[in-house]
TrEMBL record:
Keyword Thylakoid: no
Site (Transition state stabilizer): R62
Binding positions (heme b): H184
Gene Ontology CC, one term: extracellular region
Native source organism of the sequence: Senna tora
Designated name of the protein: Peroxidase
């Protein structure tokens, strides 16, 4: 994604990936014969959406994360309610929070016009989140898994131990987790996700000036309008993909409780310090961890289906 996010991170991503052997049966050339124009077509839609609204780059990365953590990267998150299952869109971590579904639907519609029934929604999600033509061949689920979305996606309130174990269950190490959390160097969060943190400093784990700044736009009183007021997840350079997220954590300026917990005297402190000092290490670890995350439990070969419309079977 060149777009609003600094192009550098994506360039590094692509370079790294080209030098990486694809695991399992996902492959970078998966659509070369069946739909050679798939990737440029998807990218064009994504770029247009991001140039219209910068934040969409962040929203699409998160959409891919919330897909992969629930029954693998199978686009189950895109399905609407049906008589057979409840949509994941209304699971607690997703409802009124995850966005970008329409951009994926638009990309899918364009791709269906040129190659009907070939390119899976799960691959479109992966390409949208990573903007690189590698590791494709995921197929789409035939169901949605609302219960798993509620149980497996980590809440912003949980302890470091719980975060580590949620990622571990998906085959991701604490180091992967810290690197991936570095996604919070872009994008935004709603007031209800950080209100407790900025108004309650009993254990001194938030910078006082930072808390005061955030309080100005996130009122203490909860109401539908107040709850959804936005703040950038990273305050210094919210639109560029850099390591300021980690520098902020060391200054006790993490926005979400789940951000600050990564640097709170626990086992991940050292990784945060390392990434805060070595931007290149962060970027290359981030690229590897994104690939690992995109490879969670893919449906390949004849498993699953290729949906014609991403929101329905
Ligand atoms: C470690 C556990 C994590 C927790 C508890 C967490 C939680 C959250 C929360 C609460 C928000 C704000 C949502 C809202 O206010 O509506 C958010 C935003 C975001 N998250 Fe995470 N997250 C985690 C890890 C990740 C990972 C692994 C990624 C990607 C690889 C990611 C990418 C993002 C992005 C890009 C945004 C901004 C989205 C936007 O602006 O639309 N997060 N996250």
């Amino acid at each position: 994604m060149s777009m609003g996010v600094s192009g550098q991170a994506w360039l590094i991503l692509v370079v790294l990936v080209l030098g990486t052997t694809c695991e399992a049966q996902l492959s970078s050339t998966f659509y070369d014969n069946t739909c050679p124009k798939a990737l440029p077509t998807i990218r064009k839609v994504i770029r247009k959406a991001v140039s219209k609204e910068r934040r969409m780059a962040a929203s699409l990365i998160r959409l891919h994360f919330h897909d992969c953590f629930v029954h693998g990267c199978d686009a189950s998150i895109l399905l609407d309610d049906s008589s057979a299952f409840q949509s994941e869109k209304t699971a607690r971590p997703n409802e009124n929070s995850v966005r970008g579904y329409n951009v994926i639907d638009q990309a899918k519609a364009k791709v269906e016009k040129i190659c009907p029934g070939v390119v899976s929604c799960a691959d479109i999600l992966a390409v949208a989140a990573r903007d690189a033509s590698f590791s494709l061949g995921r197929r789409d689920s035939t169901a949605a898994y609302k219960d798993i979305a509620n149980s497996d996606l980590p809440s912003f309130r949980v302890s470091l131990q719980v975060l580590i174990s949620r990622f571990n269950t998906k085959g991701l190490s604490p180091r992967d987790m810290v690197a991936l959390s570095g996604s919070h160097t872009i994008g935004q969060a709603q007031c209800f996700t950080f209100r407790d943190r900025i108004y309650n400093n009993s254990n001194g784990d938030i910078d006082v000036g930072f808390a005061a700044t955030r309080q100005r736009t996130c009122p203490l009183a909860s109401s539908p309008t107040n709850d959804e007021k936005l703040a950038p997840l990273e305050l210094v350079t919210p639109n560029s993909f850099d390591n300021n997220y980690f520098k902020n954590l060391i200054r006790k300026k993490g926005l979400l409780p789940s951000d600050q917990v990564l640097y709170s005297g626990g086992s991940t402190d050292d990784i945060v310090v390392e990434y805060s000092k070595h931007s290149a290490t962060f970027k290359s670890d981030f690229a590897s961890a994104m690939i690992k995350m995109g490879d969670i439990q893919p449906l390949i070969g004849s498993a699953g289906i290729v949906r014609r419309i991403c929101s329905a079977i």
